[in-house]
Batch of 3 targets.
Target 1
Amino acid sequence: MRKSFFYLPIYALALFLTIGFYDGAEQKNKTAQNSKEDHCVSCHKENDMMPKGFSENDVHRHAELSCSGCHGGDPSSDDESIAMSPSKGYRGVPKKKDIPQFCGKCHSNINIMRVYQPRIATDQVSQFYTSMHGKKLLQGDVNVADCTSCHTAHNILPAKDPRSTVYALNVPPTCNKCHGDKELMKKYNLPSNQLEEYSKSVHGNELLNKKDIGAPACNDCHGNHGAMPPGLTSVSYVCGMCHINNLQYFNATKMARAFEKQDFHGCEQCHGNHGVQKPSDNMVGVGKESICVDCHNEGDKGYATAKSIKISLDKLSDLYNLAETKLNEVHQKGMNEVEISFLLQDAKQDLIQSRTLVHTFDTVKVNSKTKDGVAIASNALAMAEKQINDYYTRRNGFLAATLAFLLLVVALYFKIKDIGKKNS
Amino acid sequence: MLLDRRKFLNVLLGLGTFGGVVAIFYPVFSFLIPPKSAEPKVNSVKAGTASELPTNSSKIVKFGRKPVILIKTEEGQYKALSATCTHLDCIVQYKQDTKQIWCACHNGTYDLNGRNISGPPPKPLEEYEVKIIKDEIVITKLG
Amino acid sequence: MKRIGNKIIDWIDERYDLTPVRKLLKHKKVPSHKYSAWYYMGGVTLFLFLVQLFTGILLLLYYRPGEESAYESVRFIVTEVKFGWLIRNVHSWSANLLVFFAFLHMFSVFFSKAYKKPRELTWVTGFIILVFTLAFGFSGYLLPWNELSFFATKVGTDIVGVIPIIGEPLRNILRGGEDVTGATLSRFFGIHVAILPAIFTMFLSLHLLFIQRQGMHDPEHFKNLPEEKKKYIPFFPDFALKDFLLWLVVFNILIFLALYFPWELGNKADPFASAPKGIRPEWYFMFMFQTLKLLPAHILFIEGELFGVLVFGVAGFIWMMIPYIKIKNKSDWKVQPLTVIGIVVVAFIVIMTILGYIL
């Protein structure tokens, strides 16, 4: 018994040492593997010379494309003269003008890119050179954007990654780094208030405040690598990517033709561009806020059309608002609002569609839709009023019942008194 | 004309009793009369007859408070999905040419299984079950 | 009117001999004194129970028990059925008033010591009826299957589970399973509309039979009056009509409450959702709930909750047995010990109920 006790710790110790040795060997192997590629990183880290904004999350780092993957050189050597030797392919830091080619060495070559992402596009550089940024860069302008201006150099993340500088929510601030710089933009005769305008717009509010990445950021209208302001005729098509009905209706009208002749920018002419707001019904018609009267004067056909369309819209809109107020009253009174609310959903659809149909500039089409909506909203209003009436009827009924009971109680009381007197 | 006190009191008592009885039995009898929709629509809704709905067409049906779009495909299959777009709550529609579900507000598209396939909608449309019982289309909640 | 009435009575008399009924009606009398008003409390309680029975049967015509249909059927009743809102709200309000008046009636009987011999069994059956009334309230509360009622039932049945040995099986029998589910709803429905009414009717009949047989209790100060000073009023028609008058007033108040303070529908119960904040039982259980909350986690070696449940159980039993417990009167005390006990009990219930709401 005692003997095994003696030998037990020895066996345990042997076991520990074996495991430890094995583990140590594995670790050494790992570092050996790492040290095969990362003398660049280890040396630069040691000497506190890492590039600004370096991140371990960088997508190239994850794909095991260390420093040498882009800059060349030999990471297996810890001797600077070998590791950073041009004979080993070391390219150093590229000049700004050469950056697109630098990145394009891989990113324009589908044979290289398909290894990492079979479906990735490889036209970024060629697109870039069609953009203002690209053109100016070729001319030697050092103030325009290159690949790293938007994507960063050592913290590149896929656009779908919420941490990326080119993730939908981050695109406006990224573009704004240069386009919001007043001094810089003055050199190109460009405004610098786009982000400010955009933030106040309906799209900016959706994207930046409500975090709805279905809303357009800068690149959705201007393009990514081939970024340009939309051409004169193409503004409508850009808006029409989402607002498709408005585009189709508008393009079929005489107005579209007239706009082209006058060099008007389609949708932008009435709705603005960066600062586009949720449209109000008052933009139509002949009132103070109306846009129609910017061109149309009293007496011309357009003026009459604008007036009649506004009247039609107002009819439905007013009735809908009234019905909605009544619905809230029904709800607040604790009566049944389910059916009414369902009807109002339909009326709302009709109202939205009527507003879209404004872009046909055709009174007949708008009227036919508002007529439908008015019928539904009237029905909803009637139902709401019935519910509210029921609420008061209940109270009146109660009053009547109480009076009947009161009569009975009083009569009974006197009867009891009478009987009491009779008995005594 | 002077009614003597007792008679007057008895008349009042009679009137009061009558009033009281009416006040109680009128509501009770009204309660017993079945209302228009004879029973609560719980988890299923009737949506018309199968033979009346043409193929490759759709209609919007009320399910409680929510709109549901009922589609009869070209192959004669029935699909029922929530009709409220998951982007900004517009009512979707069925497009007979592309045979997809489409939202006119911002051009969002869903396939016939309700999956959001293009445009801003972030989530698919909720699916409902469709049963045909003696030519009557019945839509029920899934699960 | 009177002639037709008399004709009908004569017709029945010929066949069934109404002599004992006539005798009872002629001779039954009720003492009339400073505290006679309390005699009406039992009648009001009975009236409210009858209202419950009537409105309950009406609701039964439309209510559908079951997880998938209970809530919707109640919503159907209050929105689509004509006067459904009235019937449902009267039922809910009458339930609460019934419990209140039952307690009031019980305490008035206690303080006037009407439970003493020969009326011990009237007290015992009455106590049993009170417990059943609370059971009616507890089982009925779950039936609309909304959030509040679901969680109140969960908490309430959890407490049953703390009793050692039999607690958990008992709880599972009540719940129809380990958790509160549709099975619980079915069970509570059966309990509420069949089991409880059947047993309750039995005890109620006994209770009323005893009262008819023995008549109203004469309180102490009345008993000590000289014979000619003792005032009585005949039960029929005087007391009965006064009773009816009070019932009418209570009824009117009931429908006023039903209209101006309607019961909410709430949100449909979701067993997977977390309990809403501030979940608590109905007011008539509040004093027990609050007491359990205030007890420390352990008292000696017994778990706090269990201690509380046991104490309430024992206290209830003692209360039921009051007619058989002799507590001597102390001649030098201004207020007798028994009355003191009663005041303490009332104060405890009232204070605990209030605390349950403000804490």
Target 2
Amino acid sequence: MIETEALIIGAGPVGLFQAFQLGLQDIRCHVVDSLPQAGGQCVELYAHKPIYDIPGIPLCTGQELIDKLQLQIKPFAPAFHLEELVSELHATEDGQWHVQTNKGTQFKAATVFIAAGVGAFVKRGLSLPGFNELMGKHIFHEAPNSSAFKGKHLLVLGDSDAALQACQQWMQGPEAAASVTLVHRRNHFQADPQAVDAMRLACEMKSMRFVVGQPTGLIHAEGVLSGLELMNAEGESDILQVDSILLCLGLSPKLGPLGHWGLAMERKQLPVNTESFATEASGIFAVGDINTYPGKKKLILCGFHEATLAAFGASALLRPEQKTPLQYTTTSTHLHKLLGLS
Amino acid sequence: MTHVVSESCIRCKYTDCVDVCPVDCFREGPNFLTIDPDECIDCAVCIPECPVNAIYAEEDLPADQVHMTKLNAELALLPTWKSITKRKIPMPDADDWKDKTGKLSELIR
């Protein structure tokens, strides 16, 4: 059990800036995110796309913004718990919050900052009967080892660079699959055009094949997968023989467990007051795209403001006997000390 | 405010958008997808997913598409228009229709 004054759920730009503002209040924090890296949507969806409305930064990409925020919070060294999805949150008897992740990490936190954006990014699966039973045995999000598909009839699902790379990897070499078939629901790819050309060439060389289709059924008996039923664009059904399926379907944000924590929600968002961005549950704050209040605008820079006031709110809550003075990072020796400057 | 599917989607239904929606607010008709404005949280994640750029924030709709806000809301209430949360194969002649404009008369309720 990790005991902490503050826990931040979500390592997007607002979650990261929350760590900075808590740091200025001398509140140490832990940060949990479902993705393997910090950055949230900024990195997952907009890594190389431009952002023009961050104050003082005329232009940066999503990734650049996250890199700068990481640098900014470095003095406070928040502890990151990546690739973990917060599954449970409930109040403890002594007025704190018990938080648990899907990997079993447990926290007892005096304050919780929900900076979950549009929810957690989770790997897409297949909503077909038998999927859960076969997952990890015959269906994978990534190869469990470098010879996992050796001699197997492998289906790769998806249209990303990762999907095409997987085809290249498994169609040749000493660990090659018996056959590699790429399946995507249309003959158009998100992947780099060069990778697509290489894939088409490999198909011409009969090193692999590409099939357009939408998976409609898994054929399996006693936990062993033998085929994938597909529907093609003409609505006809076809069955592909298969031993293993590799899913490269990317990520999809889902509100997930957050909806079941018993917090008051309004249109799947958390209502907050605009003095401290606290929710109605004492000690729980919501910042960024996940919250709602009159006049709410889903902008990163608004999230920064919200995180700032939430940190003041947390300070008042955690240290009621102590005044929370407003200090400037330009002149305050106290803040300089916290920032490791003196 | 809400996000709105414009006429570009008619007879295409690429369905890339439905998969990313965190609140499952898309509804599917015979040849068009609509957004339920009571469910949409304006997260904008769906906008870049659409291969024909059919989705707009309400206030960003092109002038010739503003009628789609009302139509989206209306269609979302039809009992036969069910929630769609997983991608599927686009309509068979989607690629032929994707660049056509003025498709409103093609809409099947």
Target 3
Amino acid sequence: MWLSPAITLRWPDYFKPDSDDDAKIVKTAIDAHEAKLITKRAAVQKIQRTFGIENVDQFLLALDEEAAERKTNAPAFTAPTPQDNAPPPVALPITPQGAATK
Amino acid sequence: MAMIAGLSDAQAVLRANISPRAAHIERLESFVEGTQYRGMPDWFEADVQLWKKAPCISYPIVKSAIDSNTDLVLADGRFPAFTTHPDEDDSIFDDAGLNTEDSAVMDRLLAGISKQVRFKSACREIFSSAQGAGSGVAMFGVRAEKLFMDSTKARWCVPTFAHDGSVDTLEISYPYLEEFRDESGKWRVSAKLYRRVIDSQLDTTFLPADANTSGIQPIWKRDPLQTFEHGFGFCPVVWYAFMRGCSAVNKFDGQAIHTNYLDEVRALDMALSQRHRAALYAGDPQWTEIGVEQGYTPTGKARGMAMPATAAGGVASASNPVTSGYRDTSRVTQGRKKSPGDVWQYEAPDAKVTLHTLPGDALTAIDNHARDLRIKLAESLAVVFLDEEHVSSRGAVLSGRALEALKSRQLDRCDQYRSDVGDKLILPSLDMLLRVTKKSIESGRPLRLAGISKAFPILKRFDIADEAA
């Protein structure tokens, strides 16, 4: 007897959203995630079609790897020097003749 | 064809060998093809009652609806992706379930099979014909070391079913006309019968046989050149009954989209034909003259129409001079000149000349009637036609959301079609292709298919008998 393998059909949208629709979807996902209303997974699922993400799990892993890589490559923290604490230079007004005045 | 000897007899024999079911489906299909009025008196025939005439315009609203549905459900970019879920490990809770690696292998195999059998276009073709005929049929096998997925007309097919609803046997038979030369070399035509039977072991085509008016079946003889043993152990056929719903046990056909609207389609064609005839008859401005003597011409006599003849035929030129010509002399006395320089002048003081033209609203009533019928038919068929004026009033480009809103009625119906075609055609066909693949490899039949060596051990797991062995 043949047992059919579990095959699932994924039907796409009837009409592709335009760029404005895509922008709204992405913004909604970011806002909801930043407001801690949805998980990162839910946010990725929301934008899955917009960016053609085939596998959400793999995509989340890739995001984590990228984040870890960024952390590794970030410059090491150093104590601020006295120059760092100096006030920023003040721009001097220019006279009509072109000479700077104080 | 009309003059060929034996045609009327052969057509009578042909009709005697068409079953009522096949005739019904043929009628449904004729409304898709626009041939439903064939054989009826011409629309411009004078001595025939209006309702008995064949409308001169056969508006293809059913075909347009079918095409639109097929575009929305199965067009490129809308065809469903199919997967065994490589992101899920089903082997944890199901012995026959696939782990992530096996799922990835199966997905690659499905992609290869789909490409080899032109799966998308085959499904589109079957879905379209099922909408018009009520049913569609898909046949599978291996030909020239490749998988194939074929189809044929549902009206020629009679399936029988197993308890689980799968096809047990499929018989394809139909009468047809064959032209041939008799002993004297004269062309004749006769009615023949075609028959092919596919079951769990054999695909048998029989030699063409003579049809007769009694409809009694001939003694069939196998055609050895077109008969072969596939040996799958199951009938490699999927029967797709379009939106069948609940129906009697002996009914295996689905419901064509226009089954209940044939009268309305004809009414629309009649209205369009009436409008067309009215526009033709009354649309050509007609002069009338009152108080003018019969035969009086208000201009000089016009020359009759002349057709020059040239040396080499065609248009006259320097290298192709006019050699002679043909002049229509029959209407010279009645012709009159018509040009800006030719003023029509009448001597009779009470002469009245009128040019009758069609008023702007002359066809409005029949036009509104035709539009109303078209709208009602579109509603019944659950299809939304985006007419040019409809779209242009909303700007040159409609966004996806706007199109969804405009076509919401049709999309709601297409959601049902997606479930129907997905569950009853696409998934069973993919399953059948996997079974055919497995059986073919198993029986040592050559099959060129990418990824099959890795996938075969996985396929074997779906056959319980194999596992038990």
